[in-house]
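hey can u check if this looks right to u? its 203 residues, i copy pasted from the old doc so theres a chance i mangled smth
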Amino acid sequence: MEKWICTVCDYVYDPELGDKDSGIPPGTNFEDLPEDWACPLCGARKSDFVRLSDVTEESTKIDEKKTDQNLLVWSDEYSINIKEMDEQHKKLVSIINKHNIAVNSKKENEILENTLKGLFEYIEIHFDKEQKLMMQHGFPDYEAHKEKHDYINQEVYDLYMKYKKGDESTAFMVGSLMKDWLFNHICKEDKKYSKYLNSKGVT
């Protein structure tokens, strides 16, 4: 049974495990997944997956001279000490790095629409899970945090509209938004709710 990898966020679909959250039982081959099935981490379409065996070292190799200074490496600095949320935040880091690689290769406009759509899908899944977690444990500043989520969602929508109108500054602004999301929202705002949830035994 072959494993398949998401080209947007690097999630690997393992047929031996299936996708419990989407109702896909263990033993389901990738080819047998419903056509409307989506990546459980970033929401990418089934067509955005490729066979893991086809992803060779050569095809995924990064030109370090061009990109090393712009790539982010996950560290404890970004961790909010809640495993599920950290795993999802790592996907944002992956999206940022893919965007930076495209910028350095002068191919950002070729992937910009997919980047924005990937962000929409990521937001829908991630914010929903994060907000449910806060509500479940009675985080007192839930409404204020949700407002920040709504703001990011609107920012991504506005950038998508700029892209559709042909605004050439969109690629730069998308990169800036994602980095601000990581360094300010996750490293500051998310750590406020995670500290509260950690005190409730959530890790």
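Residues 170-199 form the longest helix (30 residues).
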